[in-house]
Design goal:
Helix content: 55-70%
CATH superfamily: dinb family like domain
Number of strands: 2
Radius of gyration: 17 Å
Shape: globular
CATH architecture: Up-down Bundle
CATH topology: Four Helix Bundle (Hemerythrin (Met), subunit A)
Order of helices and strands: HHHHHEEHH
Distance between the termini: 11 Å
Largest sheet: 2 strands, antiparallel
Strand order of the largest sheet: 1-2
Number of domains: 1
């Protein structure tokens, strides 16, 4: 199957929200394709000292929450700050997958609540109150999510290779079924 942005879907939404939603949809598909078969130890493995898959998936969910909070014009809560500081902590594969799925679903709903008329409204980001806009934050939701899902996929492939499974096997099987772009 082709990537979400090439499926002609979500045409009822403006281009910015549509592309953010497509990026979140692609991230969800990649989580299911590459991360659902990992054991607890594989989900938390740090091959060559790199960040584990669990970190990237938790970071996706939690950073989307933070970025959308800024886009909505609100400050981060203590709970969000605590979550930020615990992203590297280990967790079961089931817990991590549940969190990223819920985070992506919630992000989709929150993106839909943002009006295109607000895209140029200024927003302050972080303790330093760095300047951005609602539209800039939405675009960053998409690009940041894709950056971390790519890192999660790469780490998952390394982990699969370490268990003796060729890291390309899932991709190869999908190609053979005609489910991804060659």
């Amino acid at each position: 199957m082709v990537e979400p942005w090439l499926r002609g879907t979500l045409t009822e939404f403006d281009a910015v929200r549509r592309q953010v939603l497509h990026a979140l949809e692609l991230a969800q598909e990649d989580v299911e394709r590459w991360c659902t078969g990992l054991s607890d130890s594989e989900m938390n493995a740090r091959p060559f000292g790199i960040a584990p898959v669990a970190f990237h998936l938790r970071h996706i969910a939690r950073s989307l929450d933070r970025l959308l909070t800024y886009a909505e014009g609100r400050a981060l809560s203590g709970t969000q700050m605590d979550a930020l500081h615990s992203e590297m902590e280990g967790a079961s594969a089931e817990t991590v997958l549940r969190e990223v799925r819920a985070g992506l679903a919630e992000a989709r709903q929150r993106v839909l609540m943002i009006s295109p008329e607000s895209y140029e409204e200024p927003r302050a980001v972080g303790r330093s109150m760095l300047p951005s806009t609602v539209g800039g934050l939405l675009v960053h939701c998409a690009e940041h999510t894709q950056r971390h899902i790519g890192q999660a996929i790469t780490t998952a492939k390394v982990v699969m290779g370490a268990r003796g499974e060729p890291p390309y096997s899932s991709e190869k099987a999908l190609r053979e079924k005609g489910n991804i772009i060659p």
